[in-house]
Amino acid sequence: MTGKERSVQERLRSIPAVEKVLADKRVGSVMARVHRRMATRVVRQYLDELRRSIQAGAEDEYDVDELGRRLEQEVRPRLTRVINGLGVVLHTGLGRCPLSGAAQEGLRDVASGFSSLEIDVDSGRRGDRYSHVESLLCELTGAEAAHVVNNNCAATLLVLSSMAAGREVIVSRGQLIEIGGSFRIPDVMRQSGCTMVEVGTTNRTHLRDYANAITERTGSIIRVHMSNYRITGFIKEVGLEELVQLGNERGIPVIDDLGSGALIDLSVFGLPKEPLVQESMKTGAAVACFSGDKLIGACQAGIIVGKKEHIRRMKKHPLTRALRCDKLSFAVLERTLELFLDEARLLEEHAVMRVLLKPVEQMQKEAKVLARKVEQALKGKADVMVKPSLSEFGGGSLATESLESRALAVSPRAISVDELARRMRHSRPPVFGRVERDEYLLDFRTLSKDDIPETAEALLSALGAA
Ligand SMILES: *Cc1c(COP(=O)(O)O)cnc(C)c1O
């Protein structure tokens, strides 16, 4: 036996038994807060991993601190509120959009007991869960009818399945996108039972490309928002108006996958323009679909608006039941959509709009408040400075655009920025910041005034100055 093998055997033997670890006084305080069954599970998993890594030649040993950290993670729910200092407004990892106060109230109201989800309060008879939001959507977008499913991916699946299954769907090669999380246009087409007919080239597609591809098997033409990518240079895509005109001439409905789906014109506020759902309806798209939790700022949902005949068929499609939303989603959707009826209220209360329209001076002021709060107590453990920064829309909207913002830049002296970022993520609530070169940045476009006290506390504790 060589020295190394012996030490492997020895180290394996030194791994304590599960029961012994469970009784280890050094983790007693956290152990007392974790349910016994979950504690046993965490300990077992940890010891198994330790055994495997020792067998694989690692110099690991039973580490009570590591176990303590793992148990600590079991104490609180995994899904919690976090502080977004990343400056990405719609970050899928951070739950995409924050909700408005009205939506939170609606959520609490419906969650607190029974609800009128599928009952007609007037007659006391069975009602329709979609009717609450359908009239709002029709009013806001000018559509004849509307429908809601679980997310925009589900919306595309249902739209294609109900309108073009067994037939061909024409799409420009420049629009064959993949959104993160394996949503890919060709895959959704296949899953919907459609045959995809690609036309044009990556950078240029002409109206004649669509026209030449139409056959007696064509079920629909689809336009897909490019969302998270852009091509520039020698490019051409066909506008919705021309597609609709072609569709009308040949009796083919045009589907418009808008991605984010803006209900108000952002360019009025000096932001880049996103295509409006109203415009899509006015131009004559047969149906348009978009996400509920991107610029709409509600919950995860796929909103479909369009002509009555198509929506009626969708509602009867077997997929509809499989893709239907929960009462909590309807509560959030209804209260969020209501904000769009009144622009003044929208700008005041809509959480995404507020973040998008947050003035730079306000960010500057708030960043300074945080700086002042921590500066004294840091006693040279880190340098802090308010700096110009750039934040992003995220969520596949306005992919290449960035927004001017302000950030608090922290340069720790005794620990690395990565270690600081890690410690911030482990605070309560977890704080997410950007690491850029040798600085830790907290972007005040997404970090709100209300987050300042907790962020200050997290910073001081992470830097050992609490
Ligand atoms: C984001 C996006 C989707 C997927 O929407 P989810 O609501 O995330 O399912 C589909 N199509 C386009 C064009 C998008 O931008």
How do the helices and strands line up, and which of them pair or pack?
Layout: H1 3-13, H2 18-22, H3 28-31, H4 36-55, H5 64-75, E1 83-85, E2 88-90, H6 101-111, H7 131-141, E3 145-149, H8 152-164, E4 168-172, E5 178-179, E6 183-184, H9 185-191, E7 195-199, H10 207-213, E8 218-224, H11 240-250, E9 254-259, H12 277-283, E10 287-291, E11 302-306, H13 308-316, H14 318-322, H15 327-339, H16 343-349, H17 351-356, H18 360-378, E12 382-394, E13 402-412, H19 417-425, E14 431-436, E15 439-443, H20 452-462
Helix pairs in contact: 4-5, 6-15, 7-15, 18-20
Pyridoxal-5'-phosphate binds next to helix 8 and strand 9.
Distance between the termini: 51 Å
Helix content: 40-55%
**SS element count, helices:** 20
Give the name of the CATH architecture of the largest domain: 3-Layer(aba) Sandwich
Radius of gyration: 27 Å
- The domain tally reads 3
pLDDT average, as an integer?
94
CATH topology of the largest domain, which one?
Aspartate Aminotransferase, domain 2
